[in-house]
Every structure is written in structure tokens, then in C-alpha cells.
Amino acid sequence: MPKTKKQLSKDSDEEFTPGPSSQAPSSQAHSTQAQKAAASMDPADQEKRLHDLVQYLLIMDQKKLPIKKMDINKHVLKEHRGAFPVMMKKAGDALLQVFGIELVALEDKLKGTYILVNRVDTDTEDLGNRDGQAGQDFTPVEWPEEDDAKTGLLMVILSLIFMNGQVMLDSYMWHTLKKLGIDTDFNHEVFGDSKKLITQEFAKQGYIEYTRQQNSDPPVYEFRWGQRAKQEISRKNCLDFVSQLYERDPEQWTSQWQAVLEEGEAMGTTSQD
Fold first, then answer.
1. What does the angle CA 204 – CA 3 – CA 231 come to, to the nearest 5 degrees?
2. 235, 253 in Cβ contact below 8 A?
3. Domain 33-118, what architecture?
4. Which residues lie below 8 Å from residue 253, measured CB to CB, with a gap of 6+?
5. Which fold has domain 149-233?
6. What is the pTM of this model?
7. How far are the Cα atoms of 110, 116, 206 from residue 107, in angstroms, in the given order?
8. Is the pLDDT higher at 5 or at 234?
9. 33-118 against 149-233: fold identical
């Protein structure tokens, strides 16, 4: 997992950072305050709030939008907001043990928000084998139903970014998608306003970053993987997806295969820490 930093918010609620680093020495005093707040709760009330919190996180994640700390405090913890880090730790443990889902704190511009990441192994072949249609390609002619089509489009976009060296100009993105039958200058029969879907919805969900290059005039925008994509999708899955589409061995993509190997080594190092 990426390293995270902890700080006090304006309302003095401590941020919760899942994982072993959540008990760093600099935050022990604040953790003690949160533990006292949690200990002051009636046991039955704490259990109910924990159940409500888990349900709230699962429901809100269906929208695939980062879940805000202030919304959790407002709608679930309420007067027990001081126990936020303790309750989030308990909820994170429950989600991982029961559902195999990890509660992840986002960083940078999305600090103070959280996502749920399925840690159960998945196979990229599933993206091309929905509803019993083995080997279904993402072509200009046949796209799956809307929800699955969005998943397919997202995977195509992330793959393009990855294969282009982790960053891609929007002009090149639009040009490439047009070749796939998605002209972002016109409404698509499945996606509607595809440019809005990509630059706004996918960006809000944390799957991509769509940013303007500094000092560009006229403005030039570029795409990168967002924090949710980095948590949910491995480079190997992405390369496997592209290799299936082009019927090539992953090793034939030299630089991308090297990136996959480096990712595997990094994950192995992290698991040993």
C-alpha cells in the first residue's frame, strides 16, 4: 500500500489510515483520545454504530465515488465522531475478514476520503466473458450492456494509458477511441456523452486523473491512472487484457512487461514488511 500521512482535521478529528502505519508514534496521543471516546460509548450502541458503518460503506461504495469522512461523521457516527479512527479501524477489519474487502484511505487531493477495494483474486478474462459470451471483444460493433460496457471502456482507457508509458495526451486518447467506434464529439448509443463520462465520472470515481499540463497555451490535458485504479487494478491484469485483445504474449511488450515485473517485486517486498 502507498504510504500515507496523518494529521488532525479542522474539527480535531483524527484521520484514519488503514494498515499497520495507523499507529505511528506521532499519532499515539490522538489515538488515545479516540480510544477514550470509543470506550465511553455504550457497548450496545457501539456495536450498532459499527454495523451501521459497515453497511454505510458498502452501500456508498456502490456509487464508486470516494466516501467522505465528513459524511461518515454526519450520517453514522454523529455525536461519537471523536471515535472516528477507532470505529473505522473496526469497520476495516470487519470488511476484510468477512468480505475480503480492504478499506483504503486516499491521498493528495482526495485526502479525507475512502474507497473499498476487493482483494479477492480476479481474472481479466472475466471482462471478456460476461453472460457466458466467451472471448467477447471490445469492438466498434458489439458492446455489452451499459454497466458492463462502462467497465470495458474503463479498462480500455486504463490500458491505453499504461501502454503509452503511464501518461497520455487527451488528443491522442480521443483519436484512439474514435478508431474503436467511440467519437467523443457525438453522443454514443451506449455511453451518451462519452467525453463527460471519461473526464468527469471516471475522474470523480478516482479511476483516472485528468489534468492540464502546466503553462500550456492553448490548454493541453493529459490522462493518468487515478488512485482507485492503482489500488484495484494491477499492471499485470492490464497487460494481460491488452495481450488478449491483440493475441500476443505479454512478454512481447518489453517495457510494459518490465513494469509488471517491477510491480511484482514491489508487492513481494511490501508483503514481507
1. 45
2. no
3. Orthogonal Bundle (1.10)
4. 163, 239, 242, 243
5. Arc Repressor Mutant, subunit A (1.10.10)
6. 0.64
7. 5, 14, 11
8. 234
9. yes
